[in-house]
Design brief:
Layout lengths: L3 H12 L34 H9 L6 E3 L2 E6 L2 E8 L4 E10 L7 H11 L5 E5 L2 E9 L5 H16 L49
Antiparallel strand pairs: 1-2, 2-3, 3-4, 4-6, 5-6
């Protein structure tokens, strides 16, 4: 169902579209030397900004295009984009999944059901005739661990399209509501019954 050329063009189109306002970087005041006893990790604590996102991304790969709010790179052969806007305090991790034109009518219901109980923090979304796997979060409060988890869920949700439609090993159905293809387990988190030979699984761990 995937069409490489179409999805690649979709990525390039979004990267070249000024969908986010670029906020000029403020000139930082003259830095004072850090105290010798200050742990290195403490020096980077604080609200997440473009520089922090750039560090997060480069822990996975050095082959990154763009910057200052729009990045593109690959995880296990899958094209991933990170788009952010400091002024709006929003960021998005996303990857193209399939062309909407290739969908059967029943696919839309599967996607909405997955967004309810299987996609968790990542979501399926449609824009520009393309189905995307996306994770959206306020930018300033995004932690390093949340970025890693969001990236993992985006990759897994894209890879499981057409099979389990899951972003993790958990299925969350509040109030005990079950999908028809899921056994009744009293509303507890469930393990998907299906496995996908095309599921990419988790992205590689950040490099040390």
């Amino acid at each position: 169902m995937r069409t490489t050329t179409c999805l690649t063009l979709a990525c390039l189109l979004l990267l070249n579209t000024s969908g986010f306002a670029e906020t000029p970087q403020a000139q930082s005041p003259e830095a004072t030397p850090p105290e010798p006893t200050l742990p290195e990790a403490a020096a980077i604590e604080g609200p997440t900004d473009y520089a922090a996102l750039d560090r997060f991304i480069h822990e996975y790969t050095d082959e990154v295009e763009g910057g200052n709010g729009r990045w593109a790179f690959e995880i296990e052969g899958m094209g991933v984009m990170v788009m952010a806007d400091q002024a709006a305090d929003r960021m998005r991790i996303m990857t193209p999944v399939a062309r909407v034109a290739d969908f059967e009518d029943s696919e839309y219901q599967r996607l909405l059901e997955a967004n309810y109980d299987r996609a968790l923090d990542a979501r399926y979304a449609i824009s520009g005739g393309v189905l995307w796997s996306a994770f959206i979060h306020p930018m300033s409060s995004l932690s390093h661990d949340q970025f890693d988890d969001g990236l993992e869920q985006v990759v897994r949700l894209s890879g499981s399209f057409g099979t389990t439609y899951t972003s993790s090993d958990m299925v969350f159905a509040p109030g005990g509501q079950q999908r028809e293809d899921q056994p009744d387990q009293g509303g507890a988190p469930q393990q998907p019954n299906e496995s996908s030979p095309h599921d990419h699984g988790a992205p590689p761990a950040p490099r040390s």
